[in-house]
């Protein structure tokens, strides 16, 4: 049982490293967007595309290990606190990255750097839109 746990820990470390790389890209993008004249933002888009395949592969490998980890008795899991620590670290980093990425989206909109076909729907900002869809009411 130790070998699958070691593999899980290794996979979690690799996944965390990928999340660090993504956070680094988003952080550099944020610094760039906060500069006086941000142009050429496409360099970050390519970096995001390049890392996407690594992220997808890592997620698939982790999902395989997740089921085996959940089958491990709790008293055995409690002897491996690094697994929980790595999961918490990774989730914290993902949340930081999401918040920073949303800020980047706002900066892109403010600098009018989003192509028209990629602009978010105005209904995204309207919390009652979905409710009206279900009740059949028209927008006011």
SSE layout:
Blueprint: H1 2-33, H2 42-71, H3 74-77, H4 81-110, H5 129-135
Helix pairs in contact: 1-2, 1-4
Q: What's the short version?
A:
The protein is 74% helix and 0% strand.
Written overview of the protein:
This protein has 140 residues and is mostly helical. The chain has one domain. 74% of the residues lie in helices and 0% in strands. The protein has helices spanning 2-33, 42-71, 74-77, 81-110, 129-135. α1 (2-33) runs antiparallel to α2 (42-71). The chain starts with a helix and ends in a 5-residue tail after the last helix. The model has no long low-confidence stretch (mean pLDDT 82).
Number of strands: 0
State the order of secondary-structure elements, H for helix, E for strand: HHHHH
Whole-number total of structural domains: 1
User: How far apart are the first and last residues' alpha carbons, in Å?
Assistant: 61 Å
What class would the helix/strand composition place it in? mainly alpha
From the spread of the alpha carbons, the general shape counts as: extended
How much helix is in the residues?
over 70%
Query: What low-confidence regions span 5 or more consecutive residues with pLDDT below 50?
Result: none
Question: What value does the Rg take, in angstroms?
Answer: 20 Å
Mean pLDDT score:
82
Strand content: under 5%
Secondary structure tally, helices: 5
